[in-house]
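Session log. Operator J.P. requested a structure for one protein chain; no other inputs attached. Running the standard single-chain path with token output.
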Amino acid sequence: MLTMDRLTPARSRLVVCGVIAVTILVALLVRFAFIDQISGDYRTFVSPWYDQLKAGGSAALGADFSNYNPPYLYLLAAVTHLPIPKIVAIKGISMVFDVVLAMFAALIVRERFPRPALPLLAFALVLFAPTIVVNSAAWGQCDSIYASFCLGSLYFLITRKPWWACVFFALGLSFKLQAVFFLPVLVIVMVVNKQRLLALLAVPAVFGAMLLPAALAGRDLSALLSIYPNQISGGGTATAGGFGGAGGGAANGGIPAAGGAPRGRGFGASADSLTQNAPTFYQWITAGTSTVWKYLGLAAAGVMVLFVGAVAWLRRRPLSAAQIVVLGTTLVLAVPFLLPQMHERYFYLADVLTVVMAFYVRRYWPVAAVVSLCSLLSYAPFLWNNTPVGLPFVAFGEFLAVIATIWVFYLVLRDAAGESTLLRRPAEPRSPIDFAAQ
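Structure written below.
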């Protein structure tokens, strides 16, 4: 059988482009099967925002009607001009970024495996991952946007382009606060690999620039700068309600619905709000000790970041692409597991990076599958008012995945040669086909 590597370069590129096109087409067909599902978040938040932007035009960007940072509203305002149904326009934004997310996952895999087969497989696996499909097509959430930019930042860290890495991280942060989970990865890799720390100035510069259109439209600067602090002080609570439910969860996770006290987030939410259906160790904590555990969790997350940074620094060697992927996956998985008041969607970035890491690390696929399954099971109480598996048991599965990932991180980074036996070796000879650059 003639393999892609034996084809002429021009024909190989054509085959690769065809595979990508077919994969995207099928992925869109799968997503359109969920297009008419309406979640509480969509009904209570995003749909009214769309209506206000459509009625008020660009001037509406100066109004204080949304708890999202303005960049998402810019995209929402743009799609109001498209001659397509509202629900398709709103969910279409996230679907486009699903493709961007899968593209960056493929580019990261390609850094170690230049032959097209594995990057194409990574592209497809991310694009069809259950939580990626549900998040955009069914829920109408937009986590793929910030996650796309975080993966772009990771890619530029691997390719030693610190300015672009910081720009992409800033873009992710300007869309959602959850991008902050990636900040320790950015700083640690830049410090250990002795990349230009001056590039970090791009983060506030780009973040500020993304607020500028809303400010020029008339929105108060202090209100713009208080969006994320208000989300944090909101405590992560939300009203219950999934598809067809009466209520809607806080659209960005951290703002209670207006007009009343916060209530539980569907079935399975912790009574003391230490977790909002997230599969974290707080699922095992009983009510009455929330303050103590909250500070213990914050301290534990800080210790985890320091541990990962110390292990990376004490090697006294630059991190390879594989080690950067393992380090990044470890932090975006372990930190949310330790932090209080996490929502189920806050493992979205971990869902993607565990898949990417499975291409780099031998026998890691079961861990990636467990992480994805735990996220999907934690979505169920809010979206479908159903708990197929008790969330404390789901949290135990996530705990095992966290422990396994930390252990792999330690083994891979302690290897003096930088090429642990845990890492998959790229096949030789390398293919000259660079499908992403053509």
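Operator note: The chain has 17 helices and two strands.
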